[in-house]
Amino acid sequence: MTYGVAFTALADPTRRAVFERLGSGPKPVAEIARGMAVSRPAVSQHLKVLKAAGLVSDHPEGTRRIYTIDPQGLRALRDWLDRFWDEALENFRVEAEAKTEKDRS
Amino acid sequence: MTYGVAFTALADPTRRAVFERLGSGPKPVAEIARGMAVSRPAVSQHLKVLKAAGLVSDHPEGTRRIYTIDPQGLRALRDWLDRFWDEALENFRVEAEAKTEKDRS
DNA sequence: ACTTACAGTTAGATATGACTTACGGAGTTG
DNA sequence: CAACTCCGTAAGTCATATCTAACTGTAAGT
After folding, report:
1. CA spacing 20 to 30 A to A66: which of A55, B33, B66, B82?
2. Structural domains of chain B sorted by starting position, each given as residue range(s) with its CATH number in brackets
3. What is the per-residue pLDDT for B104?
């Protein structure tokens, strides 16, 4: 059930952009917001959502807060995904077979 | 970039419920909507979004349309996820190391 | 042909969510 | 302690998405 917040969090393009910026390593808020289309407070709000989803974690460092990608949220997504992956392939295979069978008749 | 629509599609709880109902195999719309909190037209709208995201595919069967999970959309999500997975673990490891290092001092 | 079953579409109301501006708090430096 | 930096929060506005209700279209049965 916890994968729900993760999907919701990563649905917004701006929020995905925030998350993806952490792909190159931990960063303070100001550096994340640098050059983005939205204001810094907006980035803070997005980080709050990402944190609630377990996608990022933070720790203070002087007057700044350093944000890092958290495996926890990604793990939830990955587990959910795996539940459907094999099944999706199986469905696809059966579908394709039924189609070629039909073409033959 | 195509993983964006997939995330957006799976963000809505109702839409995820629709998608997950296809986990037990292909189904017509009426059967998907059976016992759900929303109306059948709502389910149709959700299926439309899921189809646009490449998460489901459909084919007519008499007066009914059978929907099936499509691996395509899941593939996009999986690829995106893998780009961050290893990195997240590495960041987490470094973070944990820095923490224990700090505790020792 | 008429009726019934099943599903997609449209229009409109409502709700949810993202953004900016302004402010407050916590830490650091002089 | 005063000024400065960095960041989170609150209030308010605006846009977008979801829902229901009514309608249309299509296929099958009588």
Report:
1. B82
2. 3-104 (1.10.10.10)
3. 41
Amino acid in the structure at residue A75:
R
**Of A54, A89, A95, which Cα lies nearest the Cα of A72?**
A54
Interhelix angle for A13-21 vs A40-52, to 10°?
A: 80
Check CB contact under 8 Å for B74 and A83: no
Q: Which residues of A touch B23 (CB under 8 A)?
A: 83-84, 87
Q: Which two tokens stand for residue A56?
A: 């990022």
pLDDT class for B95, splitting at 50, 70, 90? low
Give the three-state DSSP class for B35. Answer: coil
Nearest nucleotide from residue B62 CA, by C1' atom: D27
Whether A29 CB is under 7 Å from strand C: no
Q: Do the beta carbons of residue A29 and residue A21 sit within 8 Å?
A: no
